[in-house]
Design a protein that fits this description.
Layout: E1 13-19, H1 26-30, H2 35-44, E2 47-51, E3 54-60, H3 61-79, H4 86-96, E4 118-119, E5 124-125, H5 130-141, E6 144-148, H6 155-169, E7 174-179, H7 195-213, H8 216-225, E8 228-232, E9 244-248, H9 256-263, E10 271-276, H10 291-299, E11 305-309, H11 319-329
Parallel strand pairs: 6-10, 6-11, 7-8, 7-9, 9-10
Antiparallel strand pairs: 1-3, 2-3, 4-5
Helix pairs in contact: 3-4, 5-6, 6-7, 9-10
């Protein structure tokens, strides 16, 4: 692999060589046509040259050290069976700039970091940011979790994945997935069809996460049997949700009365996750009218309830999504 060097970042120029074992895995690390290496060069301002098991990194001392750390972490993830793509590269780069994950989550039997992951029928999911690591730990250690932050940070997706994993293992008997049927800034008018067909457009993101974690035929079968229930929040009134993993998505669009009603449905042997972006409220009156913001103010610090907060730095969709969110919510918004 030989290319024209990328201009290095400011600072003393440096060159290091990294030797990798398991050479059979290097094609997965480098990507098709070295696409992953090219992405690292572009993002970190270094030049990377690979020959056999040896990889040479050239650039400023700071950039070279950063690139070596990222490459070694990506190699470790390939060994664990993860697929390297630009999303993972961006996540590892972001994580390497934050406090180390080591020590955040400890194994029960010692000081080694525990491997935090969620296993479903279709994939094994691992965290892609420090905030996701803390959130995934909260999902297994708390009965009620509020996940707060912008779009694209994995709040709902990870909650659905954890719910599917617990349903598969029999830890819960049902999945109940809900969100308020609030129009996002536009009037949709009359929607044809029966009740399911009327509310399905609002619940599409939940379906998408389900189909990503379970084969389609299992999703349909479990919905038909009642193991998986997907419904607007109004359908929760008057019920006690026991032996269930309950997720409320787009919770910022609940009213305080709806939120109180939903939270008090909590039953024995259940887990409840409330996901939402406190700044993206589609209710008349904006954020002050949001049941999510009201509940956060009332419940933070209450024993047994965890709060996981995400920022634009935790966005794991295309990098441009994080920049868009920052433009809308940053200091110049």
């Amino acid at each position: 692999m030989s290319r024209k060097p990328v201009p290095a970042q400011s600072g003393e120029r440096s060159r290091v060589e990294v030797n990798f074992d398991k050479p059979q895995l290097l094609p997965q690390l480098f990507g098709e046509f070295d696409s992953n290496i090219l992405a690292l060069e572009e993002r970190l301002g270094v030049y990377i040259h690979a020959r056999g098991q040896r990889v040479q990194i050239e650039g400023s001392a700071e950039a070279v050290a950063h690139a070596r750390e990222v490459l070694q972490e990506l190699h470790a993830r390939v060994i664990r069976g993860e697929e390297v793509d630009t999303g993972l590269i961006d996540a590892v780069i972001a994580m390497s700039s934050e406090p180390t994950l080591t020590g955040i989550i400890k194994a029960d039997n010692g000081n080694a970091p525990a491997q935090i992951m969620i296993r479903t029928r279709k994939k094994t999911i691992v965290p892609r940011s420090v905030a996701q690591t803390q959130y995934m730990h909260a999902l297994v250690s708390h009965e009620m979790i509020f996940a707060l932050g912008p779009a694209g940070t994995g709040k709902t997706y990870l909650a659905v994945a954890q719910a599917v994993a617990q349903l598969i293992t029999g830890s819960v008997q049902r999945l109940i997935l809900s969100r308020p049927a609030v129009e996002a800034g536009e009037k949709l008018g009359f929607l044809p069809g029966d009740m399911k067909e009327k509310v399905d457009p609002y619940l599409r993101p939940i379906y998408d996460a389900l189909y990503d974690c379970l084969p389609a035929e299992q999703v349909e079968r479990r919905i038909a049997s009642g193991e998986i229930e997907i419904a607007p929040i109004a359908f929760m009134r008057g019920r006690t949700l026991a032996d269930a993993f309950v997720i409320l998505d787009e919770a910022q669009n609940t009213t305080p009365a709806q939120m109180k009603m939903f939270l008090t449905r909590f039953g024995q042997n259940s887990r409840m996750v409330i996901c939402g972006d406190p700044n993206q409220v589609d209710l008349p009156g904006g954020p002050p009218a949001s049941g999510l913001n009201d509940a956060t103010r009332r419940l933070e610090g209450v024993e047994g309830i965890a709060f996981s907060r995400f920022s634009t730095a935790d966005v794991v969709r295309h990098p441009i999504v994080g920049r868009i969110v920052e433009a809308y919510e940053g200091p110049n918004a």
